[in-house]
Amino acid sequence: MPSRKFFGLVILLAVALALPGLAQVATAGDYGALQGVKSMDAVFDIRGKSPKSVLIGLKLVHSMYKDQALRKADPDPKFAVIFIGPAVKLVSTNRKGFSMDDAKVLDQLAQTLKAMAADGIELEICVFAAHLLKVDPATILPVIKKVPNGWISVIAYQQKGFALVPIY
Fold this sequence. Notes:
Layout: H1 4-25, E1 42-46, H2 51-65, H3 68-73, E2 79-83, H4 100-118, E3 122-126, H5 127-132, E4 145-147, H6 150-159, E5 163-167
Parallel strand pairs: 1-2, 1-5, 2-3, 3-4
């Protein structure tokens, strides 16, 4: 019998796959919370360790960045994604310890990050966490900026008015 975690992942995947179609029909008027909003800047604190769930989260962030309703509220939103904790293993070119299936997901994750960076989303990784988890900073995907401490970046972005969105 499949686990609850599996069912949760299936539901999350179904929602993420449906989002691009939903985003195209949603308007700023569909979100009462957007009334009066001038800035949609956000920093995403990524700490997940499951390649599939982190990939789904990143695809959702990327889709949201391009969402027309969000763009109507803020034509030039600024997004930053900070990889902290176990997530640092997912953005390394070293696939040791990952299954073949996970390695395929990590390839998709790398492509998603490349597309996000090309669209202007800032990507950073906590080098402190990388060292702690024995991830060689030299193996970090080149589209990701290395910062000594990801929490300092998270705090700095919040001080600049970015909303904090944790993805664990």
